[in-house]
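Hello,

Our lab assistant flagged a job as stuck in the queue for most of the afternoon. It eventually completed. Since we weren't sure the result was trustworthy after the delay, we are filing this so someone can double-check. Below is the sequence as submitted and the structure that was eventually returned. Let us know if re-running is recommended.
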Amino acid sequence: MPDPDPILTPAQAAALRHVRDVALRDRPAALAVIGRHLADSGAGYRPAELVEAVARHGRLTLNFHPDRLLRDGRAVAEALDQEDVYRSQFETGISNGGLTAFPGGDRDRWEDKLFGGAYQRPGALPAERPKYGGLNLLDHPDGACPRFGSCHLRLRPEVLARATFSFGDTYAEPSEFGTVDVFEPVLAALLTATADTGVSLGVAGMDTGTLLQTLLRRRERASYAAGRALDDYIEAQIHGELSLARDVEALVVDPSFRGTDVARILAGIADRNGFPLTWHAGFELPVDGVDAEFRGPAIPPLAARVHAEFARPGEPVDAALIGRAAASVVTEPERWADRGPTEVTLQHLKQLWHILVWFGAPAAR
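-- returned structure --
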């Protein structure tokens, strides 16, 4: 293993080293699986070519909702603007997944197991915990993990060296892990899932041969359309401080924020730190197009209420509209008291966002 990155604390270096050791242990079995898939596909590639392609072309993305409120009342975009670093759930107290980042919580337990107890050592601080994103291998314009946010930071390729990876979200306690230089266990799991389901990183109908050619840049990318990857992604755990100026390559924003204070703040962040702000196609739905089965029957009535109370004339259901409602749930809890506990309403708004990602059309504006 290369010398520890000077950015990393001892706990972070130990976490990275532990995952790499586990991946090295599992590499021989993974190589056998990869070999079978390569033989079945008729492709004449070597496993090493694929691992090299991941390091050469893969990009880490961190999806986030810029308008969600932190514990101190600031929006995420405001905190990024003021601090110029991206913080973990252990520091912010908010999440677009489960809220379990505290000692003894589920995320703490997962990290204890995944990183060999590195972050549970005496003296390890919450600020040292990893930041969670995804590995964008197919250039999805909505990022690797859009379920976690409408916008995303795309990181510079150097950050790959201090990331660890799992095939699937750690909440499901996956068994395949890797680093960018020992990626075979994750690659084997990806090829197996593609062969078994025909879905690869959000792209349906992708056979193994097409995936291989796409990874190697020998085929035009299929992902200039949104990936919509709600559950099908390679999770990345990024160790060490994430500095916007040093580590970010681009900031990609949902078009529903055009002309808003959020967009102004994000544009200022990009300009000050020297990276571009770009826009992806976005997602929107008519309010009567919210599916009643995908996330349950409670969501369409919530969408109707959100639209009636917060939509501007002619506005569909989109990321900015959901964000205004989510902020209201935090700042005006009495307004939502009839729906029950605040955390339930916020969870339902997350599920409305999932429906929007899965079924939404590209934004018309």
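-- support follow-up --
The delay was a queue issue, not a problem with the job. The result is valid. Residues 287-359 form one domain. The radius of gyration is 20 Å.
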